[in-house]
Predict the 3D structure of the following.
Amino acid sequence: MTKIQFPQDFTWGAATASYQIEGAYQEDGRGLSIWDTFSRIPGKVINGDNGDTACDSYHRYPEDIALMKELGIKAYRFSMAWPRIYPEGTGAVNPQGLEFYHSFVDTLLANGIEPVCTLYHWDLPQVLQDQGGWSNRSTIDAFAGYCETVFREFHGKIKQWYTINEPWCASFLSNYYGEHAPGNKDLQTGLDVAHHLMVAHGRAVRKFRELGFEGLIGYAPNVTWMEPYTTRQEDVDACRRQIGWFLEWFMDPVFKGQYPSFLVEWFKAAGAELHIAEGDMELISEPIDILGINYYNGSVARHNSEGGLMQIETLDVGYEHTDIGWPIYPQGFYNVLSRIHELYGDLPIYITENGACYNDEPIEGVVADQKRISYIHKHLIQLERCISSGIPVKGYYSWSLMDNFEWAYGYTMRFGLIHVDYNTLARTKKDSFYWYQNTIENNGVEI
Ligand code: JSK
């Protein structure tokens, strides 16, 4: 068998997020988040699931970190819950919140695992949402204050930061489609939230630079790839729009200091305007050190004037699908990373999320999730192709370390290398855990 090796200093990791795993939603002074509210609105989350308990990682993190150590990951990407640090979003800091994350981070470090922190992974304090949330520019100031507190508190322990996770989901999925919290369904709101999230990103980067602490900072947009079904210009243009909605819309401002004009015009035609204040674009384009990229799927697609905002429809051309219904398209991983490198140059890239949903259950203590192994294997092969072609991919974080609350899907969709029994909270290492462990040990895969 041929083996493909990754670079010697390649970072193998795994990722989770606070609302999805912690639970303890009212413990030790935590304030409510928009997801505590949204998940209680009937019909928003399958089975009425919520993050009240989740994986109870707030209490079980020593066990989880022992599993990370056994897995052999070098780094663990987690997120801090803003409402644990600032229960009201601003104002009084919650010392118990700081204490929890100190204990957690110290335990990671004691086990030789680098803590990699996402500052915003969607759990906005509800008090801020009551004042308009990300639609209100004052939330940008609140975010900057939260980030400064966390930078001052954890510098020296945490040396890799991501400001905003998946700004497309936190803006358009949440405020245009209304499928995530807070559930608005208005394009102008989605556009304003997207812009404010990016300004907030810039404020956090600038504050990090001003403080002068050691470490690297970036953000983690999610991307997709759409292959035109035909060479017809309308199909090519539709795919460019859909890719650009995730990619250029959230990267051109950071790397070029401006929004992509072809989409500005498209949104204008749809009745939505950009509201940019003096200095916003300079803030957003504060240079970053690292770029996180989340990739799950892509598709073949074609123009359809009835196909929603981007006038596009994806086609089923026979690709396999995961249990959440997403097509499996490893080539799209290579294509989108190549496009990012072509457009934005040699900034170090970390794959901050990639993984597959398969809902295998334990049978006599074994979770035979061969399809997840196959998904990760195929995507790592494409990732190594990227590295060999000169794209500076420096690490890979498997989404997810463990099964967890998958937002509107509740607990019905499982992405973990570790199975979680939500009745007993027992953890069971899946076959993919052992496969990934072996991949890390060998720093490569067989093909
Ligand atoms: C998984 C992307 C962060 C971590 C994981 C969901 C996602 C998504 C989910 C796009 C999307 C829906 C696109 C099409 C549908 C609107 C999480 N990542 N994850 N990553 N990306 N409906 N149309 N009518 O749980 O927390 O929708 O639009």
Remarks:
- Residues 187-211 form the longest helix (25 residues).
- Residues 111 and 427 are 19 Å apart (CA to CA).
